[in-house]
Amino acid sequence: MRFKAQVLGVHPRNIVLAVEQRRIMDQGGEFLWRFSLRKKRSDLLSSFVKVVIISWWVLETKISPNRKEVT
Fold it and tell me: What is the rounded CA–CA span in Å between residue 30 and residue 20?
């Protein structure tokens, strides 16, 4: 823990206490997973709308004649 503390610039005691606190919070095995799930947006676009937008963009976008070749 000492090396990790030196890299982070904190006292080793703080890392030990943080790990212990996290272990105590997750004793049931479910607490930490609650923070890993994202709530979906209410204004999410459907896949059909995305396809329509992408196809329109492809049709309406013109490539510049001065475009450099990618090698």
Answer: 16
